[in-house]
Amino acid sequence: MRYRSAVILSSKYLVLLLITLIACTKDIGPEDLDPEPTIKDKIGGYVQKGPFINGTAVVISELDSSLNPTGRNFNTQIVDNKGTFEIRDIELFSNYVELRTDGFYFNEIEGQKSAAQLTLFALADVSNQSSINVNILTHLEKSRVVYLIGDGLSFSDAKAQAQSEVLNIFGVDGTGIDNSETLDISQPGEENALLMAISVILQGNRTVADLTEIMANISTDIREDGILNSKSTFDSLYEQAYSLNLQEIRTNITNRYESIGVNASIGNFENYIIDFLNPFEITHESTPASCNGES
Predict the structure, then answer these.
(1) How many other C-beta atoms lie within 10 A of the C-beta of residue 138?
(2) How far is the C-alpha of 54 from the C-alpha of 211, rounded, in Å?
(3) What is the pLDDT of residues 77-96, one digit of tens each?
């Protein structure tokens, strides 16, 4: 009798379990199933501070819609001294990726390769693009983009807002400017000249360690409110930009591209640097930035 009761009781639990499983299954929609992968024919671009050198490591990491890593990583490297990288037939389950590069680059201020490696990041939506450049702007906006998406913005809106806020640090209205990952310092056009100007201002006469530090300080400062609040950080940008010889920088970057067989068309980056300096009055003991190297 006890055995029969136990069997009946077990049967009831089994029926309840089956009903629960069926009910849960009915709640599952297409969005809960594993998506079909997208095969990208290629993802590639240029890594630039000045141009990064041959052999630089590039890691492409897949991100989910909240920009959390999915654990899927793809490794490649720069294949020439223009900073060119490419990876083919990449299988992705998400449209969002992070690019990380670690390597040496041409320092346009000193006219020679950097003494240490620099790390730069970029975030991108690859649903409608395969060309992604990694540069100073993509790096500076990254933390702010992640924060804004956590606040509920779409990727495209977060990207546009973060880029505009970064440009505002340098006195530039970001309205209508193309996405940072499409810019290229070796090409003509005002937007590419702007990227060059910001790269020059940040580099200044800094070591790679100092450059890394000030970029990190800016990224951390603007992460939550999009505003550079640190006066000391801004003063450092200004002081470094003030003493630059812009003609020498143009000669350095032009000669570098010529030496690697690239017919570059460097835009008028000097104008953006001078505009950055113009609104402020300060007493200096050093020679101000000039286009001809003269005081």
Answers:
(1) 28
(2) 21
(3) 999 999 999 999 999 999 99
